[in-house]
Design the sequence.
């Protein structure tokens, strides 16, 4: 079956590149605002680490359910409409995340939040593949750099607002205003079409796509661990005031942004495989630094190293997927994105169970060991 967009095709140019960057900013900004809110949600619901880990499953479940649907809808209705719907879902979920104390309501809010994030992330990456191909230039690291920039602004901004005395729900109103303004700026030049579907809309990843997807799974799991547990670790294990606990993710996002904004030059200099190996070594060292040194002031540079190490791994993998011929892009891109979000789903939950049975420190050490496995795989993957 072939679905041909009814809207006349727009040849992507600089305006479309800018709108793609804004879309990535919205995705990063939206997800990062959750990090400083986690300790507040944990306190309101009065739950332990194990139950919090189960609740955090809802973000990943919502994302994984939404992504295949978003892929099909994007092909039928275009990136513009689908990305707008996903952004609205994020905005609807945020006030609930900041206020509800009922576990069922929090689960509902996290599912909606995850579905919105998954929709925006998937659609942004599909648009990025289309725009990058038309430009004839390597642009993926720059696009993902705006995701990371959104992470800095979101995590540090919300932490700053909470530090100034704003209540969580008041901080989310500021967040929604920023997201809505960014969306209005991006809408005119978001692509009114998506990738054409030729053949089945869904297919199990195989070959090199499956291999790349597994690497994405682990790297996204690390990012999810920092997002959902760094604030809890800093407040519970390092006695940092809850209002400032989001600075751990902000440090991670800061170095990730710097790495991605300079990523194209780094990849050209080192090569894609070496970027994966060196990046994993840096990230592993950062996790160990944050985990084994007792001061929170030492933990922040550790999270910064994790961000620097992970910064260009995912963009390199997305570029590799756009070049492979084993599976068509409208299946391959959602496949590795879904596997990545499965990592976000599994990672925080596994950490929650391990922390409940032992400690957060042991959980982070196990994450570091998985990164070492990615480093070995980086030598195998030819790009």
Sequence:
């Amino acid at each position: 079956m072939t679905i041909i967009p009814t809207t006349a095709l727009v040849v992507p140019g600089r305006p479309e590149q800018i709108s793609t960057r804004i879309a990535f900013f919205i995705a990063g900004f939206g997800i990062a605002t959750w990090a400083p809110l986690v300790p507040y949600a944990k306190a309101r619901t009065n739950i332990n680490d194990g139950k919090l880990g189960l609740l955090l499953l809802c973000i990943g479940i919502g994302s994984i359910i939404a992504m295949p649907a978003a892929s099909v809808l994007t092909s039928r209705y275009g990136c513009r409409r689908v990305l707008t719907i996903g952004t609205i879902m994020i905005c609807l979920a945020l006030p609930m995340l900041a206020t509800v104390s009922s576990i069922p309501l929090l689960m509902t809010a996290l599912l909606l939040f995850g579905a919105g994030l998954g929709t925006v992330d998937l659609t942004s990456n599909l648009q990025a593949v289309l725009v990058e191909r038309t430009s004839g230039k390597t642009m993926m690291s720059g696009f993902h750099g705006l995701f990371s920039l959104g992470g800095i602004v979101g995590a540090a901004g919300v932490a700053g607002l909470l530090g100034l005395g704003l209540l969580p729900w008041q901080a989310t109103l500021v967040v929604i205003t920023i997201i809505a303004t960014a969306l209005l700026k991006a809408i005119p030049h978001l692509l009114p079409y998506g990738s054409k579907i030729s053949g089945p809309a869904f297919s199990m990843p195989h070959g090199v796509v499956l291999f790349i997807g597994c690497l994405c799974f682990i790297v996204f799991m690390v990012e999810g661990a920092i997002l959902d547990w760094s604030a809890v670790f800093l407040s519970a294990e390092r006695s940092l005031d809850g209002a400032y606990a989001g600075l751990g993710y902000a440090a991670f996002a800061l170095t990730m942004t710097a790495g991605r904004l300079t990523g194209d030059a780094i990849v050209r200099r080192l090569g894609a495989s070496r970027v994966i190996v060196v990046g994993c070594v840096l990230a592993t060292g950062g996790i160990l630094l944050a985990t084994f040194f007792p001061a929170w002031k030492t933990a922040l540079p550790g999270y910064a190293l994790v961000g620097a190490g992970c910064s260009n791994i995912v963009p390199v993998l997305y570029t590799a997927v756009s070049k492979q011929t084993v599976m068509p892009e409208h299946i391959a891109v959602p496949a590795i994105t879904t596997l990545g979000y499965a990592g976000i789903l599994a990672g925080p939950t596994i950490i929650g169970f391990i922390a409940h049975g032992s400690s957060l420190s042991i959980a982070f050490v196990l994450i570091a060991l998985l990164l070492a496995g990615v480093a070995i795989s980086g030598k195998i993957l030819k790009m």
In short: Residues 161 and 167 are 8 Å apart (CA to CA). The radius of gyration is 19 Å.
